[in-house]
């Protein structure tokens, strides 16, 4: 197949491109504007420097390449920024995605894999944990809303065009780096807990913070479902195989089905790094659910996806080793 990977120079996209290159003989075309991505993270495929908002260029790419599938990562994803600048998120995440889907329909590209997020669930009550794909969606910020809107566009398009099929993967907390150390998360001013902890352990930050320790959890800090980026990448390979074999679109959670608290993550990073780095307590942040854990039985049953790196120490270690490298 000829596969277009948008945002393929980013953290998750580059890991998917790596696995596509290593595991398949598909032709890969990577599209990225390099605003947050890094060209050196692209290990396979042909690279096109383009922005999804350049509709004319996107149309040209579809016309010049006989594409069979699109794997769509390109998006804005900083939650506080989405609150401050919602139009950026609705234009980049929703409008540009809708145009991309339109080009698929116009050019007969009938397989679409979408990078979605657990943020579509908002702040689910504890009795709803773990969340299933049928759980209520109620995003609490423009980032989550923009992704849920894109899911709606995909669903309605698939209903209207019989030969168009999609998989939307709702990511939980992605972390770590490739086990072989070739690529990882290079994002500047990152906000993901394990990345920040690795930076603090290595002295790139003077200290880090725990936002609230009075949640209804065993140690008072938030619990999240952390998934190694390699396992998340392999879920995309499984999704592509699924769309090759099936004519049924669907939404799938991507997590391990269990979680760790903020304190547990920090203790694990301190253990693997051997550094007792400084951590300070701050007040809760608005919009942080106490617990967010996936029910991953659907992707396991339907796609036969089996995680290989469900190990918090390994996740922290690969993230730390990558942080040393950069």
The top-level CATH class of the largest domain is Alpha Beta
From the alpha carbons, calculate the radius of gyration and give it in angstroms: 19 Å
- The CATH architecture category of the largest domain equals 3-Layer(aba) Sandwich
Q: For the largest beta sheet, what order do the strands appear in spatially?
A: 3-2-1-4-5-6-11
Class of secondary structure makeup? alpha/beta
Strand content: 15-25%
Distance between the termini: 34 Å
* Count of discrete structural domains: 2
- Quaternary state of this entry equals single chain
Element order: H for helix, E for strand: EHEEHEHHEHEEHEEEHEEHEEHH
What sort of overall outline do the alpha carbons produce when their principal axes are compared?
globular
Largest sheet: 7 strands, parallel
Contiguous low-pLDDT stretches (5 residues minimum) are none
Relative helix content? 25-40%
CATH superfamily of the largest domain: NAD(P)-binding Rossmann-like Domain
Number of strands: 14
Describe the structure.
- The protein has 326 residues and is an alpha/beta fold.
- The chain has two domains: 2-175 and 226-254, Rossmann fold (3-Layer(aba) Sandwich); 193-225 and 257-325, UDP-galactose 4-epimerase, domain 1.
- It is 39% helix and 18% strand.
- The protein has ten helices and 14 strands.
- The strands form four sheets. The chain has a seven-stranded parallel sheet, with helices on both faces.
- Helix 5 (142-160) links the parallel strand 5 (111-117) and strand 6 (165-171).
- Helix 1 (11-23) packs across helix 7 (229-245), helix 6 (193-201) crosses helix 10 (312-325) and helix 8 crosses helix 10 (312-325).
- It starts with a strand and ends with a helix.
